[in-house]
Amino acid sequence: MKRLLACTALIAITAAAQAPSNLVVEGVPPFPDALVEKVRPYLEVRTASFQSWNPARAEMLISTRFGNTPQLHLVKMPGGARKQLTFFPDRVLGAAFRPNDPNTIIFTKDVGGGEFFQLYRFDVGSGNVTLLTDGKSRNTSPRFSNDGKWLAFASTLRSGKDTDIYVVDPLQPQSARMVLQVEGGGWSPADFSPDGKQLLVHNTISANQGEFYLLDIATGSKRMLTPKDAPIAYFSGAFSRDGKDIYFRSDEGSEFHQLTRLHLADGRKTVLSHERWDVDEFDLSKDGKRIAYVTNENGVSVLHVIDAATGAAMSIPKLPIGLIGGVEWHPNNHLLGFTITSAKAPSDAYSLDVDSGKLDRWTESESGGLDASRNIDPQLVTMKSFDGTTISAFVYRPDPARFPGKRPALIIIHGGPEGQSRPGFLGRNNYWITSWGSRSFSPMSAARPGTARRTSRWTTATSARIRSRTSALSSTGSRAIPCSMATTSASTAAAMAAT
C-alpha cells in the first residue's frame, strides 16, 4: 500500500501541480497546498526557439510563450527585448522570413491542437495576417524558392489523406496549384532548384526508409533519384547552389545517418561526414560554400562546419553541452542561428559567427524563478545487456553535500522504441533531484545513435538491463520501485522509494 500511494502521489504531482478545471480526477488523494506551491515553479519554465533570420539584418525571429501558447517574437540583438508579433489563442508553429523580403513572414498554425495546419502570411509593417491555404485541409512542409517567389507545400486538400504537392505565390493566395498528385501521406517538398524550375520531393515510407524524386514543375514529370523499394533511410534533401548536386542524410552502407552528396548527372555519391555518429540535421550556406551539420554523439549534440566542396572541417568553438536544433545560415554566410537546450537551462536562441568564433545567446528564458545553475549535469554511463549489446544511460546525481547517504531513484524510460533519452532540460523532473535528492536514471535507445535497425533487440535488452540496474542501485544504497506514469510527452516509467 505504501508503494502504491507513493506512485499515486508521483503521478499526481508530475501531471500537474493542481488539477485544472477541465480534468476529471478520480481516485487520486488530495495533496497539501504547501506541496503545490513548492512544485509550481518547476512547471513554469519558459523556452525560446530560433525560427529564422531576418534576410536584411542580423535579427532573429523566435518562438516563445508569454501567455498560454507559443507565439512569434522578433529579437534585434543578442539579449535584446522580445517583441511579440502574433497574439493568437492557438499555438504558432514553424515560421520563416520570405527570402530577400524582411517584411513578410510565413508561419504555420492549427486550431485547438487539431493538427489541421494552415499556412499564413504575416506583414511585419502592418501586422496583417493572410490565410494562404483552404482553412480545412492539413498543410505541411512549406519550402521557399531561392528568390522567394514561390512557396511549395504538401496538402491533403484533394483527398483528405494523400499529401499532394502544391506551389503558391505567397503574395497571391489564389495562385495555389497542385504540381504533383500522389498516393500516401508521407510526401513533402524538400527544396527548389536554384532556377526554381524543379522540386526535390521526398517520400517518407518509415523511420528507416525514404525516397527522393526530382520533379519538373512545368510538366509534372518526376524522376526517382534513390533505389526503388530499398530499405535505406534518405532524409533532409537540399540542392547545391549550382543545381548540379543534392545533399541529404542517409544510412546507405552504414549504421549511421551520414551527410551525403549526390551528383545528379551520373548518380555518383560522396559521403561528407565521417563521424561514427548520426547526422541529425544540416544546412547549406546561402553562397553554397559551407555546410553546418549536427551529430548526435551518445545523445549530446555536436555542431560541425565543413567546406561544401572538399568536406574539410573548419575549426569552431565547442558549444554548451546539450541539444542543438534548427540550424540555419544567415544570408551573410558567416552567422549560424540555432536553439540550444541543456540540463542547466531551458531552450534558448543562439548564434555563432563561424569566422570569428563568437557565440552569442540571444534569449535567456525564465525558469520559474528558480536558480537554473543548481540543476545537475548528467553523467553518461554504459552497461552490457544479456546479449552483449552496450546500452548507454544518463544519470543525474544529487549534490552529495545537500543529500548525503541513501537516496531514492527515479528511472525514466523514453517513448520508443525509436525514441532516445537525451541530456536536455529536465523541467519538472528537476524537482525530484534538487528538492528530494533523488537519483535520475534515463536509459538511451541503444549502444549508440545510428542503430535504428536494432531497436527491437534494444527493447528486449532494455527491460533486462533495467531490472539489473535496479538491483545495482539497491546495492549502492538506493531503492528503486517501478510504477507506471503517463505524461503528455511520452510513456514514462518511474521508480521511487523512501530513503
Defining traits:
33 strands; disordered C terminus; four-stranded antiparallel beta sheet; 4 helices; mainly beta; single chain; Methylamine Dehydrogenase, Chain H; 499 residues
How would you describe what is shown here?
- It is a single chain.
- The chain has 499 residues and is mainly β.
- It folds into two domains: 163 residues, no CATH class; 314 residues, Methylamine Dehydrogenase, Chain H.
- The protein is built from four helices and 33 strands.
- The chain has a four-stranded antiparallel sheet, with no helix packed on it.
- Strand 10 and strand 11 form a beta hairpin.
- The longest helix is centred in the C-terminal third of the chain and has 21 residues.
- The N terminus and C terminus are likely disordered.
- What is the CATH class of the largest domain? Mainly Beta
Number of strands: 33
- Full CATH superfamily name of the largest domain: Prolyl oligopeptidase, N-terminal domain
What is the third-level CATH name, the topology of the largest domain? Methylamine Dehydrogenase, Chain H
Distance between the termini: 17 Å
Sheet/helix structural class: mainly beta
The overall pLDDT, averaged over residues, is 85
Shape: globular
Spatially, the strands of the biggest sheet line up as 1-2-3-4
Q: Strand content of the residues, in percent?
A: 35-45%
> Fraction of residues in helices?
under 10%
Runs with pLDDT <50, length 5+? 1-17, 446-499
Radius of gyration: 24 Å
Largest sheet descriptor: 4 strands, antiparallel
